[in-house]
Specification:
33% of the residues lie in helices and 27% in strands. Helix 2 packs across helix 3. The protein has a three-stranded antiparallel β-sheet with strand order 1-4-5. It has a three-stranded antiparallel β-sheet with strand order 2-3-6, with no helix packed on it. It is elongated. The longest helix has 13 residues. By secondary structure, it is an alpha+beta fold.
């Protein structure tokens, strides 16, 4: 709600300009697709507006999506994410677990697998075993 009651379109444009906001409509959009790990949201012929506030551009998509389930195994890596290591946990994680846990390479790899690849969890498990005398 805007203080001072309703305003006309011209007053709104002036207020937005003072606040450093700029909007621009994107014409001719045929489709927008938003993919998550397990779903795909497809917007057919949506209204798309770019809102720029203090140099940050935000895209606003208006429309009714068609939501589908998707096969996460069939998707390619997204963005700059590195592809999964083919032969086990990343070398940096193995080295960290070896150093912090005081274990061999094989023990570090096994600990990382037990901890689903989480180095901190693997180290904590190793230290807990050592503290309880089991390892």
């Amino acid at each position: 709600m805007i203080p001072g009651g309703p305003r006309n379109a011209r007053q709104m444009q002036m207020m937005m300009r003072r606040l450093g906001m700029k909007t621009e409509s994107v014409d001719g959009v045929v489709e927008v697709v938003v993919r998550t790990v397990d779903k795909e949201h497809r917007f057919k012929a949506p209204e798309v507006t770019i809102v720029t506030v203090q140099g940050v551009r935000t895209y606003q998509v208006v429309g009714e999506p068609e939501i589908r389930s998707r096969d996460p195994a069939a998707s390619a890596p997204v963005g700059n994410a590195p592809p999964p290591a083919p032969s086990g946990p990343p070398a940096e994680d193995v080295e960290l677990v070896m150093e912090q846990g005081g274990v061999s390479h094989e023990e570090a790899v096994a600990a990382l697998r037990e901890a689903n690849g989480a180095p901190a969890e693997a180290i904590l498990r190793l230290l807990a075993r050592r503290g309880s005398g089991g390892g």
